[in-house]
Structures
1.
Amino acid sequence: MADALVHVDDVTKKYTTRGGSVAVLDHIDLEVPKGDFMALMGPSGSGKTTLLNLIGGLDRPTSGRVTAIGQEISRLSSRELAAWRSQHVGFIFQFYNLMPVLSAAQNVELPLLLTRMNKAERRRQVEVALGVVGLSDRLKHKPSELSGGQQQRVAIARALVIDPELILADEPTGDLDAVSARDVLELMTRLNEEFGKTILMVTHDPHSAEVAKRIIHLDKGVLSQEVRV
């Protein structure tokens, strides 16, 4: 697929345990087109998060190749991977991963500290990102002063602040109540449709997966089914 943003080619990931070698992913092939919103589903232990981490350069395949945003990331050094992630990929996690002693604005600013932006430029980027997620009035609030849904929106703003081509979300609604989860999913749909962000979301929840354009099923390390929605 010529316009694919991500290519996963014949990827296997094995971990060594006391009982021997275990294949978490077994000869996976996957393409994620630019502008796609893909949900990755499967039972616990099926390899969903492992695949997400390989695509985001947080882990390396045992064999095979991962190419993302024109770069074969499976060949990059650790330093090169860190630089690549900081420029191209936004991560959203289930438990927000916010620094409790920092304000919302300071949490969102963290990825920009790795760039050459000056303080004024960073502040503008932070204000834009928090505005996109509807939290312009919460810049100075610390995580403990925000609801779970608001904390996740801060985390989404942190992922957005570098203006990434690719957003990787691992169970982004898994720790939220139904109303907050719906708000977060609506925001992610907006990021995809209005801002053109390519999104790959791991979820165990069929209702969350329904907002995606495609649903991919992973079972025992093998891609088993694709559903277009």
Note: The two ends are 20 Å apart (CA to CA).
2.
Amino acid sequence: MIMSRMDHHPERHLVARIGWLRAAVLGANDGLVSTASLVVGVAAAEASRGGVLIAGVAGLVAGAMSMAAGEYVSVSSQSDTEKADLARETAELAADPEAEVRELAAIYAARGVDPALSRQVAQQLMARDALGAHARDELGISDFSTARPVQAALTSAATFALGAAPPLVVVLLAPLETVIVWVSVIALAGLMGLGALGAMAGGANVPRSVLRVAFWGVIAMAATAGIGRLFGTVV
């Protein structure tokens, strides 16, 4: 028997990456933008290298912990909602399985499947995995979209720290009088790279993603530099 091309090369859809990709891109972008902006703002206030570095490290630690906690709480809420829906669906399946067959068949019929065939499909799928069939086709819960709080929290914290690292390296290596320029350049280049990477991994438009993250990065750094210069002059 000759195996088809699909047997050798199963499809790998980009939607499978949604769970970790969203948290990773958000964490890295936030780490780079917030830390670079903080460093630029403190440096604009004419602080010492030590002061700029301490502010940057504090921003990295606080930001990573904040991202982890925020992602965990947010995704846990989604997970709790999914579990509640699945529990209710389990009870409905136990109480009236025939009604659940009709409900699932109606879903398939509404999508264009012949009514008689819809019932057969519903019966066969429920015979194999009733809860799985209803979770997927009635509730919209699948392996791709299932909430994973710990994964999201750890991914966000780790990528935030990675994104925050380049500005701190610049603070250590660049002359103090040029720190603002070098941090801005490195941060902008990093943001453009992250925008391109995220777009390619998610199958999105690369130029649009690059311009979007670069624009907001410039706005953030310009705003904090202005505030730092203003308060540095006043103090």
Note: Confidence is low (pLDDT under 50) at residues 1-9.
